[in-house]
Amino acid sequence: MLSYKKSDARAWARENLVGVSGVTSPSFTADLSQLNAKGIAHDIDLLASFGYNYTLIMSEVNITPEENAEFTAIAREASAGRVKLFFHASFPTLEENIRAAKLAEKNGADIALLSYPAQFWPTSEKEIYNYTKAFCDATDMAVMLFAIPLWGFERVHPAGMQVSLVRHMIDTIPNVVAIKAEQGYPQPTGSVEMYHHFRDEVVISNPIEDQCLPLMDLMDIQFSGTSNTQWMSDYYPTVFKQARNGQWEEAMKRFWEVMPARAANNAVGATYMPGTATLNRTSWKYQDWLAGFNGGALRHPMTRLPDRHMKQLRAGLQAAGLPVTDLPDSEFLIGRYPA
Q: Domain range spanning residue 95?
């Protein structure tokens, strides 16, 4: 049950969409036939202990809407009110995303992140708008728009989602409450432009940790997410809070201390992102495992993570002085709580 009415969604977001959001990927049983509730609950509890305010219930894997609802319910119970939950609208069709959103809302989701599936291939802004409005109209949840070059919308406009399109969405879709603004990634252009135009109407999120923290000296950013940062343990919630509370210089000192981990993460990402425009969820799961999360195998088509990348990511955490397991990499696919 949502804690707000659809008509009040923007006011709710202004008050409650604060802090940082991580990403939680599902854990499965050894035969991959079911969710691993114990592993999921462990991950949510650890995330909460690190100080995260939200997490994305990541569905961009081989999971059904019903399983995603179960995943949401497990996370909701484990969070005990400490962490709010994003529904991840990343299923292959609009109809399936709507059905999954309704199930997730019933099982404890607080807000939706609107991704766009690879099967969606618009050639006009009208198509992008119509898909967005159809999803938002069909759910009572607050919705965060997600503007990023991954979708291929640059075939329509170089920004993917230009100012006039976002303006139209905000004016006509009342439960659009926030923008995960990554137009022009890897540059922060979209975040700055969206902030310039819409900061007084909706929440503007820069989810990229190494952009967001420096920009917080110049911009009043209340929320950062959803993003793969929980592998750095409590670092990001801590420095984000410092920057919000007038301790930006102290936050930046810590920013530079963890540079080796950030550099390793960026280097590994650069090996697959430019050519695939797809996130390697195995890499994210492995990074989490290094930091104490459950780990474990994902379903087919699970992407592979080469040994050299595992070594690079582990070494980056060690050089940054961040928590990292001493378990061998052979334990990763087994997970901490096998079922």
A: 6-241
